[in-house]
Design goal:
mainly beta, ten-stranded mixed sheet, 1 helix, Immunoglobulin-like, 142 residues, 13% helix
Length: 142
């Protein structure tokens, strides 16, 4: 009887852990624009695809002090950047951080970002149940 109770406990534990398994998120083509000595501002691009509705709440990096999510809008014929406090990622659709559109502004870092190196970026998400989780990537500097 004790063995049966233990086995049922293990099975229920495995089932509950499966509910918290990492979501299926693809982050592709992540790259950061190279900088020269003395410049401490750059931009990063990538594509994100998820099989669940998600919200990207922020992006951080051990090497970069400030990373802001920006949307580019056209207002009265003038292109402007606006900081986004969160970005909605719709299930099954690809969201693109791209030139002339949404992008990541990287600011306040030491030393140049040299082509061929990589920068660790940590993307912070929350799902529709308001549970938070992170996904780390290495973006190539170009």
């Amino acid at each position: 009887m004790k063995l049966l109770k233990f086995m049922l406990f293990v099975i229920s534990l495995l089932i509950s852990l499966g509910a918290y398994a990492e979501l299926d998120i693809k982050i592709e083509n992540a790259w950061v624009s190279a900088t020269e000595e003395g410049h401490d501002m750059s931009v990063a691009y990538m594509t994100i695809t998820s099989q669940e509705d998600l919200i990207l709440t922020s992006v951080t990096s051990p090497k970069i002090k400030t990373i802001e999510m920006h949307n580019t809008i056209v207002e009265k014929g003038i292109m402007k950047m606006r900081m986004a406090h969160e970005i909605k990622i719709d299930h099954g659709k690809t969201f693109k951080f791209k030139s002339g559109g949404s992008h990541l502004m990287l600011m306040d870092f030491k030393g140049p970002l040299k082509p061929g190196q990589k920068v660790k970026l940590i993307l912070h998400f929350k799902d529709k149940k308001n549970q938070s989780f992170d996904k780390s990537i290495d973006a190539v500097i170009q």
